[in-house]
């Protein structure tokens, strides 16, 4: 009862998919372009990223060394020689700003990668496999959820050498439970959908269901979660460094704030010492948040499901 | 005086994507104690009419024509008068009772609230009245302390009916009141509605897509399509011997058990109900009509008399071939 | 009499919930022959949806045997997967059953890919769409579910199921959520699949009119058991069981019968009455007829079996000879 001749069907699902993806991307760009705050956020992020990457070329490392700065004026106001002035040891604040951004951004990204990697793995496994796996993984998650990050950071700093990786570890270990729960909830929602039932009725294996139905509906949530987790990680790193738990050998914005505070920059009204780092953090966090919010709105699976 | 009069009612929704004409020139009258059915499917405008009677449409909606409740123009009322009239002159029983009842309030309290909003009785007097109402609809007074989710679908629908009757309206608008219910529960609710009507002399506007239910509950019925009434007349006649091709298509969806014509012969209409934002030219039903002729795609037809007491909006009525 | 395609033997499906043990399907034996439409009729909570889901393995029977095409069906993944090549399902909510991110093409191709069917995929998809009435098929392939109408979505589901060339189609309230005027078309399509391709269909529905329209046989379910089964004309013209009679009597426009509106709510499968499970709502008991006949003790205390009382027409009732 074939009504189609062998040569008449020239439809290529792969080609259509590619076209559709290009179109979806173009739509995404248009909607993103229209959100001016989000574009501003993206621009700010790119600026800081570029600055962090070209640091070795725009600001010689020597500027960070107290030894090499021994001849510099102390507490100098911003001027031609020192665009952001100098600190209590004569070091260029501009150099600290530029090099500090590297650590702040790096820790923010690395900690987020760790958080999302563990969180997604646990969330998807618990949500999809259910029953005992879910119960055990969730108790495990709850256990980590209640670990307070500050005491953990202090303990780790005392037990291991203080380093950037410690900070990454601390943030990752205390943040992944939140992500795991979020993703698990989304997996549970999708799992109950009738089209998953239909896939099973058609004879789909578990891996097919995960690959074709669960992941595509969870991925946008993970992406949006990532862009919002980065600023949180950056803020956390700042806090830990400010409290003196950061890497003593590396400069970060949090460390700059700590040193400025300890050196009495506030009473001295040496605003050029603490303001740049503070504003830098605010700018980066705000930029990520605006960008992430726009991304989440555009990619929200709920909006997608309504066919918008 | 009629309990409800719709004169040339036209309702257009306004959205960023343009205007959507949901109702296009509807005339309808309901006399005291009468039950009138309004049949139609998704997008035909019937629920819009239900909301329009109590002025419950979104603010920017354009309403042309008149809605007269007990002789008063609903759209000319001042806000104070409107609030006084709502629920006391006419009340609505909605579909999907789970979403129409407040899930975090006990059902008895929700009825108390309605009573106290419209009269100056004390809380205990209101409570007594609401318990009476619940008993009247077949729910024991103790259940008034239940939350909506603790009741079954049929019970929730009864609560909605009690709620609608709480201020003694003259007109009850029932919008798909039994659609989501099992057939036996549906029969119970319909029986209840018939009893209440007799006891209180209520007029009722019964809105649903189920033509067969309308024939057993209403004296007259009107069939809506694309915002207009395309046929009206005594309910048994419209269901048993439809004139308009759409009414015929709709009636076929509810085959009479035992009728050899429908045995192993499911009949339906091709195509899909029209999108009110994008109606076909001429008669909006013509793309799906098996009796469409050339003129149908260019000329829209209004209701005209087909036989005493019956009207249909079809070109074949005019030519006498209906 | 041809060999039955599907045989259910005393199938039970039990769930445990907060309210206790829910015996959703409580001992159902059923045969489905090749090329027939069996309507499974009942109200919510009677277990009809659970029953067909358990045929496909979407619910696991707690007892009983299922035989398809002469071979026993066990609940292991491999066996179920092979079964799902021959038994397919369409759902009540066609919108929810389609992944909104997949095109129509992908929705229909999903089954083809899972079972690695031989042949050109685009051709198989086109043929399935055509057979389901979506012509020309190419016009629909690139669309997304939200871009087509409810009736078309149900046709897509039918296409997706038929693409596997099943021998049995399980239809769960196939037209309940569709606009009334287009139901006939979908039902006609289903009937044509039976007439032209020889498949069998089990149609779960609460609508007796649908059964009149397309069913060869009807089985009426109540609280997890079949209470009456027979040829459609027999059951609808001469119902034996009091429940069937009551259901028929409340169908609007059923002028030949006196309306018998049962009291009470649709019963709860976690609290099944003793004896004949219908006795608390049975008009024969309520009107004291049972007492007069001297069978009241049976109705309240003794469980009742399906007994053939006319040609291939059985019912489970103490009050009948």
Can you offer a commentary on this structure?
The complex is a heterotrimer of chains A (308), B (322) and C (321). The longest helix of chain A has 37 residues, at 93-129. Helix content of chain A is 73%, strand content 0%. Chain A is built from twelve helices and no strands. Chain B contains eleven helices and twelve strands. In chain B, the strands form two sheets. Chain B has an eight-stranded mixed beta sheet with strand order 6-7-8-3-9-10-12-11, sandwiched between helices. In chain B, strands 2-1-4-5 form a four-stranded antiparallel beta sheet, with helices on one face. The two termini of chain B are 34 Å apart. Chain C has helices spanning 48-56, 77-83, 104-114, 121-131, 137-141, 150-162, 180-197, 208-214, 232-237, 242-249, 283-286, 289-293, 296-301; strands spanning 6-17, 20-32, 37-41, 63-68, 71-72, 87-90, 168-172, 200-205, 217-222, 225-231, 307-310, 313-315. The longest helix of chain C is centred in the middle third of the chain and has 18 residues, at 180-197. At the B-C interface, helix 7, helix 8 and helix 10 of B face helix 6, helix 7, helix 8, helix 9 and helix 10 of C.
What is the tally of helical segments of chain C? Answer: 13
N-to-C CA distance of chain B: 34 Å
What overall form of chain B do the CA principal axes indicate? globular
Computed over alpha carbons, the radius of gyration of chain C is 21 Å
As an assembly, this protein is heterotrimer
Which two chains have the most extensive interface, and how many residues on each?
B-C, 44 and 42 residues
The largest sheet of chain C, given as strand count, sense and whether it forms a barrel, is:
8 strands, mixed
Residue stretches of chain B low in confidence (pLDDT < 50, at least 5 long) are: none
Residues in helix, % of chain C: 25-40%
* Percent in strands of chain B: 15-25%
Q: Give the CA-based shape of chain C.
A: globular
Main beta-sheet annotation of chain B:
8 strands, mixed
Give unreliable regions of chain C as ranges.
none
State the order of secondary-structure elements of chain B, H for helix, E for strand. EEEHEEHEHHHHEHEHEEHHEEH
Q: Tell me, rounded to a whole number, the average pLDDT of chain B.
A: 90
Distance between the termini of chain C: 27 Å
- Give the strand tally of chain C: 12
What is the number of helices of chain B? Answer: 11
Please estimate the helix content of chain B: 25-40%
The spatial strand order of the largest sheet of chain B comes to 6-7-8-3-9-10-12-11
Q: Structural class of the secondary elements of chain C?
A: alpha/beta
């Amino acid at each position: 009862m074939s009504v189609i001749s062998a040569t008449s069907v020239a439809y290529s699902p792969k080609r259509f998919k590619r076209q559709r993806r290009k179109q979806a991307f173009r739509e995404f760009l248009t909607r993103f372009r229209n959100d001016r705050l989000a574009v501003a956020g993206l621009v700010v992020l790119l600026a800081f990223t570029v600055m962090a990457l070209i640091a070795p070329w725009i600001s010689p490392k020597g500027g960070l060394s107290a030894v090499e700065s021994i001849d510099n004026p102390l507490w100098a106001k911003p001027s031609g020689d020192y665009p952001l002035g100098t600190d209590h040891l004569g070091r260029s604040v501009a150099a600290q700003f530029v090099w500090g951004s590297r650590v702040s951004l790096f820790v923010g990204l690395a900690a987020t990668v760790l958080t999302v990697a563990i969180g997604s793995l646990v969330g998807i496994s618990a949500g999809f496999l259910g029953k005992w796996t879910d119960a055990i993984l969730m108790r495990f998650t709850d256990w980590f959820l209640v670990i307070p990050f500050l005491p953990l950071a202090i303990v780790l700093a005392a037990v291991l050498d203080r380093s950037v990786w410690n900070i990454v570890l601390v943030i990752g270990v205390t943040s992944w439970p939140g992500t795991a729960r979020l993703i698990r909830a989304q997996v549970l929602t999708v799992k109950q959908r009738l089209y998953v039932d239909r896939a099973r009725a058609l004879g789909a294996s578990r891996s097919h269901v995960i690959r074709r139905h669960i992941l595509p509906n969870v991925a946008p949530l993970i992406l949006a979660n990532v862009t919002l987790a980065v600023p949180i990680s950056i803020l956390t790193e700042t806090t830990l460094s400010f409290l003196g738990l950061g890497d003593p050998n590396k400069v970060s914005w949090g460390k700059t704030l700590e040193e400025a505070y300890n050196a009495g920059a506030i009473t001295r009204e040496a605003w050029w010492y603490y303001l740049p780092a503070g504003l830098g953090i605010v700018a980066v966090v705000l930029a990520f948040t605006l960008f992430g919010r726009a991304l989440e709105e555009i990619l929200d699976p709920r909006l997608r499901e309504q066919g918008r | 005086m009629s309990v409800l009069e719709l004169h040339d009612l036209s309702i257009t929704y306004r959205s960023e994507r343009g205007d959507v004409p949901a109702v296009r020139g509807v005339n309808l009258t309901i006399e005291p104690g009468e039950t009138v059915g309004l049949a139609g499917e998704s997008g035909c405008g019937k629920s819009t009419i239900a909301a329009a009677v109590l002025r419950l449409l979104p603010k920017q909606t354009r309403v042309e024509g008149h809605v007269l409740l007990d002789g008063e123009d609903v759209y000319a009322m001042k806000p104070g008068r409107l609030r006084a009239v709502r629920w006391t002159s006419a009340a609505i029983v909605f579909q999907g009772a789970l979403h129409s009842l407040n899930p975090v309030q006990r059902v008895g309290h929700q009825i108390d609230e309605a009573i106290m909003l419209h009269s100056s009785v004390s809380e205990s007097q209101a409570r007594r009245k609401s318990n009476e109402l619940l008993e009247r609809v077949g729910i024991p007074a103790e259940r008034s302390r239940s939350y909506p989710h603790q009741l079954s679908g049929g019970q929730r629908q009864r609560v909605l009916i009690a709620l609608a009757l709480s201020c003694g309206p003259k007109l009850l608008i029932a919008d798909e009141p039994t659609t989501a219910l099992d057939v036996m529960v549906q029969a119970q609710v319909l029986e209840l509605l018939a009893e209440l009507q007799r006891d209180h002399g209520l007029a009722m506007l019964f809105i649903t897509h189920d033509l067969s239910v309308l024939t057993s509950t209403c004296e007259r019925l009107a069939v809506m399509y694309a915002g207009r009434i395309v046929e009206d007349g005594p309910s048994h006649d419209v269901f048993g011997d439809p004139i308009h091709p759409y009414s015929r298509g709709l009636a076929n969806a509810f085959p009479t058990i035992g009728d050899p014509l429908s045995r192993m012969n499911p009949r339906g209409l091709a195509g899909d109900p029209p999108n009110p934002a994008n109606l076909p030219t001429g008669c909006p039903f013509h793309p799906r009509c098996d009796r469409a002729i050339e003129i149908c795609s260019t000329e829209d037809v209004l209701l005209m008399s087909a036989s005493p007491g019956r009207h249909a909006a079809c070109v074949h009525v005019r030519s006498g071939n209906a | 009499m041809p060999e039955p395609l599907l045989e259910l033997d005393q199938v039970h499906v039990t769930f445990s919930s907060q309210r206790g043990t829910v015996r959703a399907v409580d001992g159902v034996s059923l045969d489905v022959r090749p090329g027939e439409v069996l309507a499974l009729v009942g109200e919510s909570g009677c277990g009809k949806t659970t029953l067909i889901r358990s045929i496909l393995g979407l619910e696991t029977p707690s007892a009983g045997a299922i035989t398809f095409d002469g071979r026993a069906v066990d609940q292991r993944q491999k066996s179920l997967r092979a079964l799902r090549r021959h038994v397919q399902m369409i759902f009540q909510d066609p919108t929810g059953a389609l992944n909104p991110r997949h095109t129509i093409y992908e929705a229909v191709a999903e089954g083809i890919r899972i079972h690695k069917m031989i042949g050109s995929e685009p051709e198989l998809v086109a043929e399935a769409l055509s057979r389901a009435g979506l012509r020309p098929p190419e016009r629909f392939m690139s669309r997304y579910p939200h871009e087509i109408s409810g009736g078309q979505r149900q046709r897509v589901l039918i296409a997706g199921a038929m693409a596997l060339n099943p021998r049995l189609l399980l239809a769960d309230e196939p037209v309940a959520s569709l606009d009334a005027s287009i139901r006939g078309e979908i039902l006609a399509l289903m009937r044509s699949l039976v007439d032209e391709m020889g498949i069998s269909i089990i149609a779960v529905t609460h609508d007796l009119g649908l059964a009149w329209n397309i069913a060869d046989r009807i089985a009426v379910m109540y609280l997890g058991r079949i209470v009456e089964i027979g040829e459609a004309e027999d059951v609808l013209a001469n119902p034996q069981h009091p429940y069937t009679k009551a259901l028929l009597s409340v169908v609007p426009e059923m002028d030949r019968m006196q309306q018998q509106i049962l009291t009470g709510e649709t019963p709860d499968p976690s609290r099944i009455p003793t004896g004949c499970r219908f006795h608390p709502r049975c008009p024969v008991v309520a009107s004291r007829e049972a007492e007069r006949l001297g069978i009241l003790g049976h109705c309240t205390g003794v469980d009742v079996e399906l007994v053939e009382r006319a040609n291939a027409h059985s019912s489970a009732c103490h009050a009948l000879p």
